[in-house]
Amino acid sequence: MINMMIGFFKDYFKFKEAAKKQQRWIEKYCEKNNYVMNPSWMMATNLKSNLCEMEATFGKRYCPCFEPSGDKELDKKMMCPCEFVEDEIAEYGTCHCALFGPADLSKEQWKASSQRLMDEYQVPKNIKDGVLDTRGMIMDPRRGLPIPDAMHQVKSTLNGYKGKSLKVIVEREQEAINLKEIAAYRGYGFAQEAIDGAIEVALTFES
Q1: Spatial CB neighbours of 50, under 8 Å, sequence gap ≥ 6
Q2: Crossing angle for the helix pair 41-58 and 2-14, to the nearest 10 degrees
Q3: Angle at CA 76, nearest 5°, toward 73 and 80?
Q4: b/e 39-61 (16+ beta carbons within 10 angstroms → b)
Q5: CATH-assigned architecture of domain 126-204
Q6: pLDDT in tens, 139-195
Q7: Which CATH fold would you assign to the domain 2-121?
Q8: Domain(s) of CATH 3.90.460: residues in the chain
Q9: How deeply is 82 buried, as exposed, middle or buried, from its count of CB atoms within 10 A (0-12, 13-18, 19+)?
Q10: pTM over cut 0.85
Protein backbone atom coordinates (compact mmCIF):
# COMPACT_ATOMS: atom_id res chain seq x y z
CA MET A 1 0.00 0.00 0.00
CA ILE A 2 2.84 2.40 0.85
CA ASN A 3 4.51 1.80 -2.53
CA MET A 4 1.18 2.32 -4.28
CA MET A 5 0.69 5.66 -2.52
CA ILE A 6 4.24 6.76 -3.36
CA GLY A 7 3.57 5.92 -7.01
CA PHE A 8 0.27 7.79 -6.91
CA PHE A 9 1.77 11.04 -5.63
CA LYS A 10 4.77 10.82 -7.98
CA ASP A 11 2.34 10.66 -10.91
CA TYR A 12 0.14 13.36 -9.39
CA PHE A 13 2.97 15.90 -9.30
CA LYS A 14 4.45 14.76 -12.62
CA PHE A 15 1.18 15.16 -14.51
CA LYS A 16 -0.40 17.94 -12.46
CA GLU A 17 -0.37 20.47 -15.30
CA ALA A 18 -1.18 17.99 -18.08
CA ALA A 19 -4.13 16.70 -16.03
CA LYS A 20 -5.79 20.13 -16.35
CA LYS A 21 -6.19 19.45 -20.07
CA GLN A 22 -7.82 16.10 -19.28
CA GLN A 23 -10.12 17.78 -16.79
CA ARG A 24 -11.39 20.23 -19.42
CA TRP A 25 -12.51 17.64 -21.96
CA ILE A 26 -13.91 15.40 -19.19
CA GLU A 27 -16.12 18.24 -17.96
CA LYS A 28 -17.38 18.97 -21.48
CA TYR A 29 -18.06 15.29 -22.15
CA CYS A 30 -19.94 14.86 -18.88
CA GLU A 31 -22.06 17.95 -19.47
CA LYS A 32 -22.99 16.79 -22.97
CA ASN A 33 -23.94 13.25 -21.89
CA ASN A 34 -25.36 13.92 -18.41
CA TYR A 35 -22.52 12.01 -16.79
CA VAL A 36 -20.33 12.93 -13.86
CA MET A 37 -16.72 12.12 -13.06
CA ASN A 38 -15.87 9.76 -10.22
CA PRO A 39 -16.41 11.82 -7.02
CA SER A 40 -13.40 10.23 -5.33
CA TRP A 41 -10.52 12.70 -5.69
CA MET A 42 -7.95 9.91 -5.51
CA MET A 43 -9.66 7.69 -8.09
CA ALA A 44 -10.30 10.56 -10.51
CA THR A 45 -6.76 11.92 -10.08
CA ASN A 46 -5.20 8.51 -10.66
CA LEU A 47 -7.25 7.96 -13.82
CA LYS A 48 -6.35 11.41 -15.17
CA SER A 49 -2.66 10.71 -14.49
CA ASN A 50 -2.99 7.43 -16.35
CA LEU A 51 -4.62 9.21 -19.28
CA CYS A 52 -1.74 11.69 -19.33
CA GLU A 53 0.84 8.93 -19.40
CA MET A 54 -1.01 6.98 -22.10
CA GLU A 55 -1.06 10.10 -24.28
CA ALA A 56 2.58 10.90 -23.57
CA THR A 57 3.70 7.32 -24.21
CA PHE A 58 1.59 6.30 -27.20
CA GLY A 59 0.62 9.66 -28.67
CA LYS A 60 -3.10 9.11 -28.22
CA ARG A 61 -5.55 9.29 -25.33
CA TYR A 62 -6.14 5.58 -24.96
CA CYS A 63 -8.33 4.16 -22.20
CA PRO A 64 -6.36 4.27 -18.94
CA CYS A 65 -7.29 0.66 -18.10
CA PHE A 66 -6.14 -1.16 -21.25
CA GLU A 67 -2.95 -1.06 -23.28
CA PRO A 68 -3.20 -0.60 -27.08
CA SER A 69 -4.20 -3.83 -28.83
CA GLY A 70 -2.42 -3.32 -32.14
CA ASP A 71 -5.77 -3.66 -33.94
CA LYS A 72 -6.42 -0.23 -35.48
CA GLU A 73 -10.19 -0.54 -35.34
CA LEU A 74 -10.23 -1.73 -31.74
CA ASP A 75 -7.69 0.87 -30.67
CA LYS A 76 -9.88 3.57 -32.22
CA LYS A 77 -12.79 2.30 -30.12
CA MET A 78 -10.59 2.43 -27.00
CA MET A 79 -9.81 6.12 -27.28
CA CYS A 80 -11.16 7.67 -24.09
CA PRO A 81 -14.07 8.13 -23.81
CA CYS A 82 -14.29 4.68 -25.35
CA GLU A 83 -17.15 3.25 -27.39
CA PHE A 84 -18.07 0.82 -24.60
CA VAL A 85 -19.20 3.43 -22.08
CA GLU A 86 -22.97 2.95 -22.40
CA ASP A 87 -22.83 -0.86 -22.32
CA GLU A 88 -20.54 -0.83 -19.29
CA ILE A 89 -22.65 1.71 -17.41
CA ALA A 90 -25.60 -0.62 -17.95
CA GLU A 91 -23.57 -3.51 -16.51
CA TYR A 92 -21.40 -1.91 -13.82
CA GLY A 93 -23.09 1.42 -13.12
CA THR A 94 -19.98 3.19 -14.47
CA CYS A 95 -17.62 2.77 -17.40
CA HIS A 96 -15.04 0.01 -16.90
CA CYS A 97 -12.46 2.42 -15.48
CA ALA A 98 -15.02 3.97 -13.10
CA LEU A 99 -14.23 7.41 -14.51
CA PHE A 100 -17.72 8.17 -15.89
CA GLY A 101 -21.13 7.40 -14.48
CA PRO A 102 -24.70 8.74 -14.53
CA ALA A 103 -25.39 11.95 -12.66
CA ASP A 104 -27.79 10.16 -10.29
CA LEU A 105 -25.36 7.39 -9.27
CA SER A 106 -25.14 7.08 -5.49
CA LYS A 107 -21.91 7.26 -3.48
CA GLU A 108 -22.34 3.60 -2.62
CA GLN A 109 -22.61 2.66 -6.30
CA TRP A 110 -19.52 4.69 -7.15
CA LYS A 111 -17.63 3.02 -4.33
CA ALA A 112 -18.73 -0.45 -5.45
CA SER A 113 -17.64 0.13 -9.05
CA SER A 114 -14.32 1.62 -7.96
CA GLN A 115 -13.72 -1.40 -5.74
CA ARG A 116 -14.54 -3.72 -8.65
CA LEU A 117 -11.87 -2.00 -10.71
CA MET A 118 -9.27 -2.17 -7.95
CA ASP A 119 -10.01 -5.86 -7.35
CA GLU A 120 -9.48 -6.57 -11.05
CA TYR A 121 -6.11 -4.87 -11.21
CA GLN A 122 -4.70 -5.94 -7.85
CA VAL A 123 -4.63 -9.67 -8.52
CA PRO A 124 -1.50 -11.51 -7.27
CA LYS A 125 1.33 -11.32 -9.77
CA ASN A 126 3.27 -14.29 -11.04
CA ILE A 127 6.75 -12.97 -10.25
CA LYS A 128 9.76 -14.98 -9.12
CA ASP A 129 13.48 -14.21 -9.09
CA GLY A 130 13.06 -11.01 -11.07
CA VAL A 131 10.85 -12.58 -13.75
CA LEU A 132 7.23 -11.42 -14.14
CA ASP A 133 5.01 -13.78 -16.15
CA THR A 134 2.02 -11.72 -17.31
CA ARG A 135 0.14 -14.54 -19.02
CA GLY A 136 -3.00 -16.31 -17.84
CA MET A 137 -5.19 -13.35 -16.90
CA ILE A 138 -8.94 -13.29 -17.48
CA MET A 139 -10.09 -11.67 -20.72
CA ASP A 140 -12.32 -8.64 -21.03
CA PRO A 141 -15.33 -9.78 -23.10
CA ARG A 142 -15.72 -6.52 -25.02
CA ARG A 143 -12.12 -5.88 -25.99
CA GLY A 144 -10.66 -9.38 -25.90
CA LEU A 145 -7.74 -8.08 -23.81
CA PRO A 146 -6.40 -9.41 -20.50
CA ILE A 147 -7.24 -7.89 -17.13
CA PRO A 148 -4.81 -6.77 -15.92
CA ASP A 149 -2.74 -6.55 -19.09
CA ALA A 150 1.05 -6.76 -19.24
CA MET A 151 1.47 -2.99 -19.13
CA HIS A 152 -0.51 -2.59 -15.91
CA GLN A 153 1.17 -5.58 -14.29
CA VAL A 154 4.59 -4.09 -15.04
CA LYS A 155 3.66 -0.61 -13.79
CA SER A 156 2.26 -2.04 -10.58
CA THR A 157 5.33 -4.23 -10.06
CA LEU A 158 7.69 -1.29 -10.51
CA ASN A 159 6.08 0.67 -7.66
CA GLY A 160 8.72 0.17 -5.00
CA TYR A 161 10.75 -2.29 -7.07
CA LYS A 162 14.40 -2.32 -5.93
CA GLY A 163 16.01 -4.42 -8.64
CA LYS A 164 18.16 -3.02 -11.45
CA SER A 165 16.31 -5.08 -14.05
CA LEU A 166 13.05 -6.90 -14.57
CA LYS A 167 12.29 -9.66 -17.05
CA VAL A 168 8.71 -9.78 -18.32
CA ILE A 169 7.14 -12.71 -20.17
CA VAL A 170 4.36 -11.69 -22.54
CA GLU A 171 2.23 -13.72 -24.90
CA ARG A 172 1.76 -11.32 -27.83
CA GLU A 173 4.16 -9.25 -29.92
CA GLN A 174 2.02 -6.15 -29.38
CA GLU A 175 2.55 -6.42 -25.63
CA ALA A 176 6.31 -6.35 -26.19
CA ILE A 177 5.91 -3.36 -28.53
CA ASN A 178 3.94 -1.52 -25.84
CA LEU A 179 6.58 -2.24 -23.22
CA LYS A 180 9.22 -0.92 -25.61
CA GLU A 181 7.25 2.34 -25.90
CA ILE A 182 6.94 2.55 -22.12
CA ALA A 183 10.67 1.89 -21.72
CA ALA A 184 11.48 4.65 -24.21
CA TYR A 185 9.21 7.13 -22.44
CA ARG A 186 10.50 6.28 -18.96
CA GLY A 187 14.16 5.99 -19.95
CA TYR A 188 14.55 2.25 -19.30
CA GLY A 189 16.82 -0.09 -21.20
CA PHE A 190 14.94 -2.59 -23.35
CA ALA A 191 15.63 -5.93 -25.02
CA GLN A 192 13.49 -8.86 -26.08
CA GLU A 193 13.83 -12.44 -27.24
CA ALA A 194 11.51 -15.28 -28.21
CA ILE A 195 11.18 -18.11 -25.67
CA ASP A 196 9.00 -21.22 -25.93
CA GLY A 197 6.09 -19.65 -27.82
CA ALA A 198 6.23 -16.42 -25.83
CA ILE A 199 8.39 -13.30 -25.65
CA GLU A 200 10.71 -12.33 -22.82
CA VAL A 201 11.28 -8.62 -22.41
CA ALA A 202 14.16 -7.33 -20.33
CA LEU A 203 13.80 -3.89 -18.73
CA THR A 204 16.87 -2.33 -17.15
CA PHE A 205 16.84 0.69 -14.87
CA GLU A 206 20.53 1.44 -14.32
CA SER A 207 23.46 1.23 -16.69
Answers
A1: 11, 64, 65
A2: 60
A3: 150
A4: eeeebbbbbbbbbbbbbebbeeb
A5: 2-Layer Sandwich (3.30)
A6: 999 999 999 999 999 999 998 888 999 999 999 999 999 999 999 999 999 999 999
A7: Ferredoxin Thioredoxin Reductase (3.90.460)
A8: 2-121
A9: buried
A10: yes
